[in-house]
Design brief:
8 strands, two-stranded antiparallel sheet, six-stranded mixed β-sheet, alpha/beta
C-alpha cells in the first residue's frame, strides 16, 4: 500500500515499476550516506531502468521499558490480553523529538541532499502523531513537489466480523526539498534571558559551595 502511494507521486499513471529494499547510497567520495529503505524503479518493456524515487519509512524511537510489559504478558497471555500497563514505571512512549532530530533530519540532510542534487523525488511515510510534532511545512502542488509526506494511522475497522486495526493513509502533504529541510532543522529559539537566568543560578550554586581541597602533608 505504501509503495503504491509513493509510486503515484514518483511516476506517471500507467508506469511499470518495482521496488528494491535497502539500497546503499554513496557520496562523491564513495562513502556511504546510508541505505535507502525502498527505491522504486520504473522500467521499460526490456527491463531497462527509466526513473526512480526514494521512499523512507520513518520509524519512531521509544523511551521507557518495553521488555517488562512483554514479559508480564507472556506469563499468562490469555488472562492478560487486555492488561493496562500505563500506570507502571517507565511505561513505553514514543519519543518524537529524538526521532526527528536523530533520524529524520540526518536522513533528509545526507541521503535527501544527494537525491535532491540529482533532481529525484523522495517520499517519507510516517505516523500521523509524529507528523503533527513537526514544524509547519510550506505546501506546494503535487506537480511542483520534491517530497511527498505520506501520513498514516491505525483505524479500527470490522474485518470478517471482527474489529481489527488497519493501516490507513490519512493525508499526504507535498513540499519542496530545501524549505522543508530548513523548517525541520531550524530550532525555534527560546528567550536568552531565561538562559542567562539559568547560568546565574548555576554560578551562584558553584560559588556558594567551595571546592574541597585536601592537602597531603609531607608526601615524601
Amino acid at each position: 500500500m505504501i509503495t503504491d502511494d509513493a509510486a503515484s507521486f514518483f511516476f506517471p499513471e500507467g508506469a511499470t515499476w518495482s521496488s528494491l529494499t535497502e539500497v546503499r547510497l554513496n557520496d562523491a567520495n564513495g562513502k556511504s550516506a546510508g541505505n535507502i529503505d525502498v527505491v522504486l524503479v520504473a522500467y521499460d518493456d526490456n527491463g531497462k531502468v527509466l526513473d526512480f524515487g526514494a521512499l523512507e519509512i520513518q520509524a519512531v524511537y521509544i523511551s521507557g521499558n518495553v521488555r517488562d510489559p512483554f514479559e508480564h504478558y507472556m506469563k499468562d497471555p490469555k488472562a492478560r490480553a487486555r492488561m493496562d500497563w500505563s500506570d507502571q514505571p517507565n511505561y513505553p512512549r514514543p519519543d518524537y523529538l529524538s526521532s526527528s532530530r536523530k533520524r529524520l533530519a540526518p536522513q533528509l540532510l545526507f541521503k535527501g541532499g544527494i537525491l535532491h542534487s540529482w533532481r529525484k523525488k523522495s517520499a517519507v511515510a510516517l505516523n500521523k502523531k509524529f507528523f503533527d510534532t513537526l514544524p509547519r511545512l510550506t505546501q506546494v502542488s503535487k506537480s511542483k513537489a520534491e517530497i511527498a509526506w505520506l501520513i498514516y494511522d491505525l483505524k479500527l475497522t470490522k474485518m470478517d466480523g471482527q474489529e481489527r486495526y488497519k493501516l490507513t493513509k490519512i493525508d499526504e502533504v507535498f513540499t519542496e526539498f530545501e524549505p522543508a529541510l530548513l523548517s525541520i532543522t531550524t530550532p525555534v529559539p527560546g528567550k536568552m534571558d531565561d538562559f542567562m537566568r539559568l547560568l546565574q543560578e548555576r554560578l551562584d550554586e558553584q560559588l556558594e559551595t567551595p571546592p574541597t581541597n585536601k592537602t597531603i602533608e609531607k608526601p615524601f
